[in-house]
Structures are given as structure tokens and as C-alpha cells.
Design brief:
The protein is mostly beta strands. Helices cover 11% and strands 27% of the residues. A hairpin with a 5-residue loop joins β17 and β18.
């Protein structure tokens, strides 16, 4: 759709017939995409953006680089939410190619497989599974009963996804108006899962706002785990029961998180870090191969000493 049509949808007059193919972040946008700037802490990313156009407030209009068209508005984030609906794919495709199912794959009764989906060889898809449109699943993967994989998601080979898990549900994204009404930000990305990944029962992995929520190969995820939109789990991470990751968390290689531990969003955890059960991570951890516990977070040994001293006070 043209930039003129997009601007008109938020009641802004703009004479530009540039074709816009999608929405993206400041850093990842290309010359055919629209981006936005709301928070001043991302001003450093503005000067290097390659976006065709940007939603921006009047205060920051002068900082928009040449070659990027500024769409000046009072509330860029709110307007992004309104525009995101224009780029949302169909919930379900009624037309398209029939799914392709590889040799040796067993599909049990009461399974739905959407248009354009491709399932590899020697997979097992159990009853009640829903596999949406344009989903790709590799070879030798097992999908247990009542697993839901939303449209456009990708699952690798040799994976196991246990009953009731949902892959690709919408991330929790809303912008609010001045009178408090919440406007949905449509989650137009997907989830990509590597090879040799096991995901326990009744877990949820949210699709990205833009691009992908990424689970790399060799990851192990327990039951009742929630992974927010745009998270990245590098190779070999382990998440045990009831772990929660807020959006845009990055876990580097072989991070281990104990039961009921959690992260705030937009942070990164160094490789080979261990977070003990119920630990709360509120800022990035940069030094690898350390153990942490508690909330607020302490190094594990310090946390044990603290608990010992508290116990003595109670005697």
C-alpha cells in the first residue's frame, strides 16, 4: 500500500506514492518499510535507519535523516498500533495450495493443516492439533494432542512439542489513548524454532511484532512456560516450569532458568548464566558463567549468606 494511503488512515495528508511493504524497527527497517520513534532513548538508532518513512513527533522531526520521510504526529506509538492492522495477514486462508506432507508422516484423525503448509518426513501429528496456514515443520518431529501452531511459524526437525502448547499466539502489545482506551498492536511476525527442541505441555511462545521470536536448536522448555514476543533463545538454553520471559529478552547460549524465575523485557543475559528458582532479572547480565538468585537479584552465594543472616535475626 502507498504511503499516502497509510497516512490517510490516521488522518494525515501526505502526497507520496512510495510503496510500503511492512512495518519494522528503526534498526531493522529497509527502504520499503515504515518505522516509528516514540522513546527518546532510541534516538541513537534514528540517524542510521534505512526506513522509507517514520512516524515521529514534531520535537524529533529535525533529527530524521535525509532519504526518510517524516510523518509528523502527536502519538507515534499509538498511530503505529492503528497502522499495524493494515498489514495484518488473514486469520485463516480460504484459498491457496493444499498442504504438503512428507513420506512416512502419520497424521491422526481430527487434525487441521492449513493452506500452503509443509510437513517433513516421518513426523507424527496427533489428534486435535491445529497447524495454521504457511507453517513449516521439519523431519521427524512429534506434535502431541491439541498443540496449536499459528500461521507462518516454522518448526525444525527432530523436535517434540507436548500437549496443549501454543506456538505463535499474539504477543501482548497495546497502545493506549489519552482517555485510557487500549488499541491493539497487531503482531505481524512469527515464531521460528530450530532443530532438536523440546517444549513441554501447556507452554506459550508469542509471535513477534515484526520479524521473529527465535528459539534456536537444542533448547529445552518445560511445562507452563511463557515466552513473550520478539524473545531470542540461543542454543542450548533450559527453561524449567513456570518461567516467564517478557518481550525482547535475549538469552545467550546455555542459559538456565529455574522454576518461576522471570525477566523484565528488553534485556540480555550472558552465556552460561544460571538463574535460580524465583529469581527476578530486571537488567541485563553481561558477565558469563555466573549464578544468580533472589529478587532483587544477587549473586547466588551472596543471596545464600543474606538468607542465613535473616534466619539468625528471627531466632
Amino acid at each position: 500500500m502507498t504511503l499516502k494511503e497509510i497516512a490517510k488512515s490516521i488522518n494525515i495528508e501526505l502526497d507520496s506514492d512510495i510503496e510500503i511493504t511492512g512495518l519494522n524497527t528503526l534498526t531493522d527497517s529497509n527502504e520499503n518499510e515504515l518505522t516509528f520513534l516514540e522513546n527518546k532513548k532510541y534516538l541513537k538508532d534514528l540517524e542510521n535507519t534505512k526506513a522509507a518513512a517514520i512516524l515521529v513527533s514534531k520535537d524529533n522531526e529535525s533529527k530524521v535523516p535525509s532519504g526518510t520521510i517524516a510523518i509528523v504526529c502527536d502519538e507515534p506509538y499509538l498511530n503505529l498500533a492503528k497502522i499495524s492492522k493494515l498489514f495484518a495477514p488473514n486469520v485463516i486462508e480460504l484459498d491457496g495450495e493444499k498442504p504438503l506432507i512428507g513420506n512416512g508422516t502419520k497424521v491422526m484423525p481430527n487434525v487441521y493443516i492449513g493452506k500452503g503448509s509443509v510437513i517433513g518426513q516421518d513426523c507424527t501429528i496427533m489428534s486435535g492439533a491445529y497447524i495454521g496456514d504457511n507453517v513449516t515443520i521439519g523431519n521427524n518431529t512429534i506434535i502431541y494432542p491439541n498443540v496449536t501452531i499459528y500461521r507462518d511459524c516454522k518448526v525444525g526437525s527432530d523436535c517434540i512439542i507436548h500437549a496443549g502448547t501454543v506456538i505463535g499466539s499474539d504477543g501482548f502489545g497495546f497502545a493506549n489513548t489519552k482517555d485510557g482506551k487500549y488499541i491493539k498492536i497487531y503482531q505481524n511476525g512469527n515464531v521460528t524454532i530450530g532443530d532438536d527442541v523440546e517444549i513441554g505441555a501447556n507452554s506459550a511462545i508469542d509471535r513477534a511484532v515484526f520479524k521473529s521470536t527465535i528459539i534456536e536448536s537444542g533448547v529445552r522448555i518445560d511445562n507452563l512456560v511463557h515466552i513473550g514476543h520478539n524473545c531470542i533463545l540461543r542454543t542450548g538454553c533450559i527453561l524449567t516450569g513456570q518461567v516467564g520471559l517478557s518481550g525482547s529478552t535475549i538469552l545467550n547460549q546455555y542459559v538456565i532458568m529455574g522454576g518461576q524465575s522471570a525477566t523484565a523485557g528488553h534485556l540480555e543475559i550472558a552465556p552460561f548464566t544460571t538463574i535460580a528458582a524465583r529469581g527476578g532479572v530486571t537488567k541485563s547480565i553481561e558477565e558469563p558463567k555466573k549464578q544468580w538468585a533472589g529478587f532483587p537479584l544477587f549473586e547466588h552465594r551472596q543471596w545464600l549468606k543474606l538468607q542465613g543472616r535473616i534466619a539468625k535475626l528471627l531466632k
